[in-house]
């Protein structure tokens, strides 16, 4: 471990802004690379310096902290650029997880890069990827929606967009809005499966997966399941099978079935018109019964 830490420390480059992912719950999730950067940074930009100070103390580190929040990110960028110009190493962290993803950091990264300095990520914990990894979705693509809108009307419009989504949707929600959100989801997609990941990597982490109604019942019977930070993974909508045949397909199968056995006629019609062989076969059987 010491060898890997030393390699990480040796790779740190002056005049660089390191965007460092920090633990989202379990402090042991801090990587050796992140530890090396925080130990050697001349300046650490924190969303909340009190929270970052606790992280540093847990590892026996000290650092020069400044607060870079959404409200002052643009103005503090100049101070960071001046530090880089002086040859310093600067680290950017948020309260938990990866900066600049639903947290401050994106504007700072742009300003630093535009000023001609490197911006490098230090990969680490991610609530999004952690939730996806246990959700049981098989698609390689997904949509990250961030925090759902606080207002009911705006949230309804956002949820409506995913009624027919054929990809998983990952979103953040707060404890005091989760019941209202589930109620809206129940109306829009009662058959869809949903993962509710709560307090990921913390002491009371739980992962609930089922239909919306099943999750509503769990939260109704156990108030503790409505507490803490939450990640929701909405499973894709089930594709509706199109069993309707085109007019051309039915015309062709009508002709062929008069001269050929049903199975052979369906197979030949499928080759001609590109329709499903099973759908053509079922159509013939249904019409024979009629």
Task: Describe the structure in your own words.
There is one protein chain. The chain starts with a helix and ends with a helix. Helices cover about 45% and strands about 15% of the residues. It is of the alpha/beta class. The protein has three domains: about 1-125, 3-Layer(aba) Sandwich (Cobalt-precorrin-4 Transmethylase, domain 1), CATH 3.40.1010.10; about 130-235, 2-Layer Sandwich (Methyltransferase, Cobalt-precorrin-4 Transmethylase, Domain 2), CATH 3.30.950; about 245-290.
Secondary structure elements and pairings:
Layout: H1 2-10, E1 16-20, H2 32-40, E2 43-46, H3 49-58, E3 65-67, H4 73-85, E4 89-93, H5 106-114, E5 118-122, H6 127-135, E6 143-147, H7 152-160, E7 169-173, H8 178-188, E8 193-198, E9 206-211, H9 212-221, E10 230-234, H10 247-257, H11 262-273, H12 277-289
Parallel strand pairs: 1-4, 1-5, 2-3, 2-4, 6-7
Antiparallel strand pairs: 7-10, 8-9, 8-10
Helix pairs in contact: 1-2, 4-5, 7-8, 8-9, 10-11, 11-12
The proportion of residues in beta strands is 15-25%
> Any idea of the CATH topology of the largest domain?
Cobalt-precorrin-4 Transmethylase, domain 1
Q: Widest sheet: strand order?
A: 3-2-4-1-5
**Known CATH architecture of the largest domain:** 3-Layer(aba) Sandwich
Average pLDDT: 92
Low-confidence stretches: none
Superfamily (CATH H level) name of the largest domain: Tetrapyrrole methylase, N-terminal domain
Integer count of domains: 3
Q: What best-fitting shape do the alpha-carbon axes yield?
A: elongated
Radius of gyration in whole Å, from Cα? 27 Å
Distance between the termini: 76 Å
**Can you give the helix content as a percent range?**
40-55%
Oligomer: single chain
Q: Strand tally, please?
A: 10
Structural class assignment = alpha/beta
> How would you sum up the major sheet?
5 strands, parallel
């Amino acid at each position: 471990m010491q060898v890997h830490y030393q390699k990480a420390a040796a790779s740190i480059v002056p005049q660089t802004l390191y965007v460092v992912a920090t633990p989202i719950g379990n402090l042991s999730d801090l990587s050796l690379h992140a530890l090396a950067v925080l130990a050697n940074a001349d300046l650490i930009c924190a969303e909340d310096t009190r929270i970052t100070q606790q992280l540093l103390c847990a590892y026996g580190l000290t650092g020069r902290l400044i607060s870079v929040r959404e409200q002052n990110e643009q103005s503090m960028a100049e101070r960071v650029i001046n530090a880089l110009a002086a040859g310093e190493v600067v680290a950017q962290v948020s309260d938990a997880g990866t900066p600049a993803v639903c947290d401050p950091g994106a504007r700072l990264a742009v300003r630093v890069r535009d000023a001609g300095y490197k911006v490098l990520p230090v990969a680490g914990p991610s609530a999004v990827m952690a939730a996806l990894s246990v959700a049981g979705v098989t698609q390689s693509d997904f949509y990250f929606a961030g925090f759902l809108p606080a207002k009911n009307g705006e949230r309804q419009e956002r949820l409506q967009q995913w009624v027919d989504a054929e990809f998983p949707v990952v979103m953040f929600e707060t404890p005091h809005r989760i019941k209202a959100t589930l109620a809206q989801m129940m109306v829009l997609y009662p058959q869809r499966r949903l993962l509710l990941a709560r307090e990921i990597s913390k002491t009371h982490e739980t992962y609930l997966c089922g239909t919306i109604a099943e999750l509503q019942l769990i939260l109704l019977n156990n108030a503790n399941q409505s507490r803490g930070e939450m990640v929701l993974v909405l499973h894709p909508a089930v594709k509706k099978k199109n069993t309707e045949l085109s007019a051309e397909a039915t015309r062709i199968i009508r002709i062929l079935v008069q001269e050929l056995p049903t199975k052979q006629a369906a197979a030949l019609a499928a080759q001609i018109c590109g329709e499903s062989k099973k759908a053509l076969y079922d159509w013939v059987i249904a019409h024979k019964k009629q």
